[in-house]
Write a structure and sequence with these properties.
The structure is a homodimer.
Chain A (H helix, E strand, L loop, with lengths): L16 E5 L3 H12 L3 E6 L12 E4 L5 H9 L3 E4 L6 H8 L8 H8 L1 H10 L7 E4 L2 H11 L3 E5 L9 E4 L5 H7 L5 E5 L3 E11 L5 E3 L3 E6 L2 E7 L5 H17 L4 E10 L4 E7 L9 H4 L4 H9 L12 E8 L6 H5 L4 E5 L10 E9 L8
Parallel strand pairs in A: 1-2, 1-4, 2-3
Antiparallel strand pairs in A: 5-8, 6-7, 6-8, 9-10, 9-11, 9-13, 11-12, 12-15, 13-14, 15-17, 16-17
Helix pairs in contact in A: 1-10, 2-3
Chain lengths: ~375, ~375
């Protein structure tokens, strides 16, 4: 699949302006990476207290359904990108009629829907968790024999960090679970006997060149990423396979920008794609401190038509999220050796809210496993 | 010397606001470092097109003589710092009556004047280049026997990158050179037979703790820094001596923040202090990419009462300034391996103007000397 952009990519050099949809920590870190390159950022967000507003050249507070505001925004920037996968399709279309939107809206629309995302991967011969679409009584009944129990029922669109999900332990729980999700289109995913979650943060430039950061291992608590270990302890075969999966997806989507691919490693050593994120990703935050070019800068480079940066890791790293009140531990964290502390400038430290992260650096080959 | 602040230092944590005087690339990189820590920045600058405005939460365009604007600014922030040593003393006084100003105005006022700066260093037993004050016909005549020729006549205040300087090759040129500098108070500095310029970027926290980055070697072209090599190839004795000089100065000034000390190494292996910069410094830019905590974050940590960060170098580095039109070479530079490209968001690429820099990283112990 090769899509054509509304407007061919011309490099956006220092002094140019990038429009970013979304003003959370990812938009904030994208804006900071863009600033390093001498690029200005304009942030578009419906939230008046968006953390990214604190570090950008211009910002707009408006809804994603506000066509006039979107058009004005598109005219004020050189290229448009986004920090989150749930950009409404209509908004992407309004913007892409006026400016290059990267990653391209077609890739975005496929990845936004869990069923089309997984079908797309499977169509490329990439192994995924077992899955089935549930959007009718008939598909509900057909799903169980394919997927089996236990399984997880997820809304096919929206939802993150475990929101919009129901666990289905026995066959008779499925109908009730779907009722619980208001019978919106859902995807039923089979439980996989996996040993761990891995991810690759990969990028593709406007010239079709690709570059991947090292395969990493992710550990979750309560469905929220807690720690990323870079690099993952893994065989050369596994690392190569993970990179091949990411590159196959990037090329098939005619993708420009950074993409994260979350994978399960099964007990018998296979990789199953769990989720694709069409954006910079929490499991790539370690690259800010352990690589010459971070995932954020890499994304900015790609969408601006710059050469991709070197993804070589100069240090091993362990990234730990600071959730809710944990952000208050900054005085102790700041005193640790070889540790980079990051706070996102968010106001209220609600339980489970991602307030910041710390990256601990280790000389190559010396990172502990815990 | 121990000075007392107008207001005792209380830590400024995430969510707090730092007021920065000056909106150039140093203010910009300070603001970006503050943002990493979840701190907001307000930038005060007389220049409407200040590069730092693009990355900060708030900014004020006003002159440093505008008392009302300064007072309003001080009330809007939690602590005040600056990116340049020529902050007018009156402005520092207005601000410090309302908020903690760090580094403290007393240190600033000593360092602002080349004669008092060098006298202060000498008073601590620190070797400097030979120097004498010229502020009258009598002192003009007394200076030559002390300093000798060739020498450099510099205005005692203001001036940078070779501006406000006259070379005096023979004794009879001195009077004319002083006329050329409009007979303002000047310092006559003897030429030193030095082999190279070295510098230490050092910091002192609100608790009196100090931390130094590795000694580096600086190479100039046309009085402007071209390249910094980190670390400098130097004996352990020389490195220790440089750190001791920096620490002695930090303590004597009761300093809080980052200070750079430029030194000459003489042919016989002695260190002579050439200049003290009461701020982050061009010769410390490599720390952004080669240390977990950069000089910019270190300065922010110090003035906000945080623990100082680890100054350990994880990589060797070579920093090269991009002057004037050289900034246009970003497509080639961005394609280099292990290279971090930095642009300052400045509009016009005037000849010799610092537009950005690149830092090339090397595994420890592998950096070439050129």
């Amino acid at each position: 699949m090769r899509t054509m952009d509304a407007e061919p990519m011309r490099p956006v050099g220092p002094g140019g302006t990038i429009g970013i949809l979304g003003g959370g920590q990812l938009g904030r870190m994208l804006a900071m990476a863009a600033a390093r390159l001498g690029l200005k950022c304009a942030i578009y967000s419906p939230e008046p207290e968006s953390p990214a507003f604190q570090v950008c050249d211009a910002h707009v507070v408006a809804n994603y359904s506000d066509t006039r505001a979107l058009e004005k925004f598109a005219r004020s920037v050189d290229v448009v990108t986004y920090e989150f996968e749930n950009v409404p399709g209509d908004a992407a279309n309004v913007l892409s009629a006026l400016k290059s939107v990267q990653p391209n809206p077609k890739a975005l629309s496929i990845i936004q829907d869990r069923f089309s995302e997984k079908s797309f991967a499977r169509g490329l011969g990439i192994a995924t968790t077992p899955f089935a679409l549930i959007d009718s009584q008939a598909s509900l009944e057909a799903a169980l024999p394919v997927v089996g129990v236990p399984a997880v029922l997820k809304t096919s669109r929206l939802g993150y960090d475990g929101k919009g999900q129901q666990i289905v332990r026995t066959a008779d729980q499925l109908a009730g679970a779907w009722d619980g999700l208001k019978r919106v289109p859902c995807i039923l995913e089979g439980f996989v006997d996996f040993t761990r979650e891995l991810s690759v943060v990969a990028a593709r430039g406007a010239d079709g060149q690709t570059a991947c950061y090292d395969l990493v291992e992710n550990r979750h608590e309560n469905h929220i990423l807690r720690t990323t270990l870079a690099p993952a302890k893994a065989s050369a075969r596994l690392k190569t396979e993970a990179v091949q999966i990411a590159e196959k997806l990037l090329d098939a989507f005619d993708y420009v920008g950074v993409m994260a691919v979350e994978m399960f490693e099964t007990r018998d050593g296979r990789l199953l794609v769990n989720e694709i994120a069409p954006r910079v990703h929490n499991s790539g935050h370690w690259t800010i401190d352990a690589c010459a070019v971070s995932q954020f800068e890499q994304h900015i480079r790609a969408v601006c038509g710059w050469p991709l940066g070197d993804t070589t890791r100069h240090s091993d790293a362990m990234m730990t999220n600071l959730l809710g009140e944990e952000a208050g531990s900054w005085p102790a964290l700041a005193a640790e050796p070889a540790t980079a502390v990051h706070h996102y400038g968010k106001g209220e430290a609600r339980a489970g809210r991602k307030m910041g992260h710390v990256t601990r650096l280790y000389p190559l080959g010396t990172r502990p496993e815990e």
